[in-house]
Amino acid sequence: MAKEIDRAVIVEDNPQMRDLINMVLGSFGTRDIIHAGNGAEAIAALASGGADIVIMDWKMDVMDGLECTRRIRAGINGIDPGLPIVLLTGVTGEESERAAYAAGVDLFLEKPFSLKKLHAGVTRVIEAKRPQ
Amino acid sequence: MSQEETYPVKGSDGGSKFEWSPDMSVGNAPLNEDHKAFFEMAKMLSEVQGANDREVIIESALSILEEYVGGHFLREEKAMRAVNYPRLAGHVLKHGSFRARVKAIADLYRAGTKSAADGLPDIVADWLRAHILSEDLQYKNWINDSVVDSRPLVYLSIESDT
Fold first, then answer.
1. pLDDT of residue B2
2. What is residue B75's DSSP assignment?
3. What angle do CA B16, B21, B25 make, to 5 degrees?
4. What does residue A110 show for φ and ψ, rounded to 5 degrees?
5. Inter-chain contact B48–A113, Cβ cutoff 8 Å?
6. Cβ-contact A109, B56 below 8 angstroms
7. Rg of chain A on CA atoms, in Å
């Protein structure tokens, strides 16, 4: 990853999964990692501090990952609408993938995941977002 | 039974067996951080019983554990090699043995024997604690920061595959 990730937001309702993703982001060298249990918490965290990457679950109470993505892309509460978003989900299938990309995610990744799988995905998204 | 297997299961400071304690410090921040992450992973796995998405969490954790093992062992072995550490060969053998054990558990789990992962939190925490105290602390006075590859662990994990 040419650009290191200073700040990341994990949007995930399962605490163990959140810890696991936190551990993996830590192995990328990221130290400022914010946890959000649903999309609404993520919006609040992003409005106050932004992020270099968002790792987003799909199915969550209060506000799910696709709705949260749509709101980010709309620039709600002053959030950067171009924020890199990786959807990391247990939802599978082409229909779901199409729906996720239509909502605005940059990458659709299925769980289970590994350190290298998430690193490759995050790197791909960050590189693609870099100004030419 | 090896010396590594005779250590008590409780933390050496009397705390949780899933916690790193300062007496385990090898004097280098990235290596200590790697060790802390292993304990965190073991703790997380010990709490996953009955959780939603238990299988997908364990499946992910097994892959990540294998990758962490590869990256961390490479970080240690590169440092020991750089200073011609005299006990390197034996240390590498112990790494290889643990790496093979984790792989065997992961393979069994992926083949459908879900109970294979039941003992994993204890296996990781017990082995790590014993290994740090009996083996890693011996290289503490040999290595220094300049010989430790301090890149984020993911890069060492990728390098360990090549």
1. 38
2. H
3. 155
4. -90, 140
5. no
6. no
7. 13
Domains (range + CATH), chain A? 7-125 (3.40.50.2300)
* Chain A CB within 8 Å of residue B44 CB: yes
Beta-sheet strand order (sheet of A107-110): A32-36, A7-11, A53-56, A85-89, A107-110
Q: Which two tokens stand for residue B128?
A: 């790590």
**How far from each other are the two terminal CA atoms of chain B, in whole angstroms?**
33
* DSSP conformation class of B9: S
Contact criterion met (CB below 8 Å) for B149 and B76? no
The distance of B140 to chain A (nearest Cα, Å) reads 23
The Cα of B12 is separated from the nearest Cα of chain A by a number of Å equal to 24
Kindly determine whether residue A28 and residue B152, on different chains, have CB atoms separated by under 8 Å. Answer: yes
Which of B52, B151, B153 faces A14 most closely, judged by CB atoms?
A: B52
Which ipTM value was assigned to this complex? 0.93
Angstrom distance (rounded) from CA B86 to CA B142: 10
Three-state SS string over A20-72 comes to: HHHHHHHHCCCCEEEEECCHHHHHHHHHHHCCCEEEECCCCCCCCHHHHHHHH
Nearest CA in chain A to B38: A23
Contact A112 B56 (CB under 8 A): yes
Q: Which of A90, A111, A119 is nearest residue B154 as measured by Cβ atoms? A: A119
Residue type, B28: N
Q: Tens digit of pLDDT for each residue in B71-114?
A: 999 999 999 999 999 999 999 999 999 999 999 999 999 999 99
Can you tell me the distance from the alpha carbon of B161 to that of B67, in angstroms, rounded to the nearest whole number?
9
In A, minimum Cα distance to B39 occurs at A23
As its CATH architecture, domain B27-160 has: Up-down Bundle (1.20)
Query: How far is it, in rounded angstroms, from Cα B119 to Cα B122?
Result: 6
